[in-house]
Amino acid sequence: MRSPKVTVRITPKQGAYLSFIQQYLQLHGRSPSEAELQQFFMVSPPSVHQMIVMLERRGFISRQAGVARSIRVLVASDQLPPLDEVQAAMGIGAEAPGRRVASPIDVAMAFVSKINAQHVAGLCELMTDGHVLIDALDGRTEGRETMRTGWRDFFRLFPNYCIRVSQVTSTANIVGLFGAAGGSYHNAPKTRWQVSAAWKATVEDGLIDEWRVYCDTTWARRGT
Fold first, then answer.
1. Which end of the chain lies in a sparser environment, N or C, as judged by fewer CB atoms within 10 Å?
2. Is residue 5 part of a domain?
């Protein structure tokens, strides 16, 4: 039986977590891990865990004991503020990304978090005006506004797209990320793909100036 939704008064910080969890659930069909919440909000593991415990204690979420990614939001959807608004209230926005992102690695990981949340506006907030994306076939796309459309189209073609980073290195403003990427296809939603992949991020003034992808692209042919 589905848990009843509750109507409550929530703080902007609580709303930020609840909105992110709800959006993630809608996109991926499962709740985010605490590590993904940590990456998105750029806080420590204890901070995320304390927030989850508090949200559960107040009856804002429910979890199944011993089951990973089992969070469900119990607050009615119309009681949740838009994620963009609560981000701005918390200072996680385009006006001052440097206040929340202290190093090139943090910037790159924040970019990954926005990709995993399929948060196009958040991705664009972390790009320079002249942002460049170089794909695995050396295709080059330039400009933040061009990439706004590009990421929307990409997420439409490959629902559930997600990056898993297992290792990160950096030299000055260059960050290397290594791990895997995976997702599904818009025309075959039950078919999943996953490949080993790497990314290079060039960071300028707290923003991603270049994002380069290295992976086998045979998986992409089915989704186009």
1. N
2. no
Phi, psi of 66 (to 5 degrees): 80, 5
For 64-119, what is each residue's pLDDT tens digit? Answer: 888 888 999 998 888 887 766 666 655 554 433 333 434 888 889 889 989 988 89
- Other CB atoms within a 10 A radius of the CB of residue 14 amount to 20
Give the closest residue to 119 by CA, choosing from 95, 93, 142.
93
Same domain (yes/no): 70, 101:
no
Determine the residue type at 10.
I
Q: Last residue of some domain: 90, 118, 148?
A: 90
* pTM of the entire predicted model: 0.58
- Please check whether residues 136 and 207 belong to one and the same domain: yes
- Residues 182 and 197: their CA atoms lie apart, in Å, by 10
- The full DSSP string for 135-173 is -TT--EEE-HHHHHHHHHHHHHHSTT-EEEEEEEEEETT
